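User: structure tokens for this one?
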Amino acid sequence: MTFIKTVHFHLLAIGGCLLLCNACQTGRVISSSAVNKNYCAPANTTIITGTSVLLENTDSLISAYPGIPVHELLMANATHTLAPLQQLQLLRTDTSLAGRVKKMELKQIIQQRCLLATTEIGSVAGELDCEGEKTDQLARYLDNINSKRNTHFTVASIIVGAITTVASVVITKDAPKNAAAIGGGLLSAGLGAMTINANRKKVKLLHPRNPLRDTWYDTTASSIYSPFIRYMLHEQHFSNSGKVSLAASIRERWLQFDLRGTPSPKETRLYFGDGGVYTAEALHTRAAMLNELQSTIRSLHQDLQQLLQYLQAME
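Assistant:
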């Protein structure tokens, strides 16, 4: 009988050692074709406000059109409405029938192009919203798996600890008692170590079409953002301070609040490259950056509204 107890407790010790080793290993990676489906990309990626924006020197542009406020001037440049806006300025005092008809035509052209710009903003913001929800959903999925797993190990650790305590009191002989204490202690420690490694489950997420890439690397061309949106993100006058572009401001917030410092080359490839193996925490970080970029792009509606209000005031 004593021999059986000794063997039993030796098996407990071995089990505890195996759990400790397993706790130090990398978690299993979840990979699925459903995870990597790019259902957020729009079916039609045609750029609707033109193939290019008038990327003239801002100071020269302001000097050339002194009668137009700076913000409205740059918005007209971004939406390809600078020419009709200038004509409206020249016809402002024309009260003839022909002049009024011409002004109505010019305003209609500007409003139509602003409407197209609005749909572009909505399209990009919708893709970012979809990517953010997809990433956050995966993060919650991993959180739930890890949480259930940790609960199971915590309960098992408590039970093992209680059994070990009772066994140490009941068993009178030194050898079996020591075996029980050591085996139970190792098993309880192994279970505890398994709960410490909270991010064991990971997921492989690939995103060749990465909306974060262009903003991070400040690229001059993009397959995601139209020239209109890129112009507004990189023109400093559209920011509140007028000194730092919206794109630069986004990168600063990412570094300070999401990445918490300069990311490592591995993190840079993960977040701003084609993807890779994500933990739940990394997925939450990516989702936060996507949502911040989406909010900034949606705020461009306010600039369009200001241009339309200026247009209305010209009557």
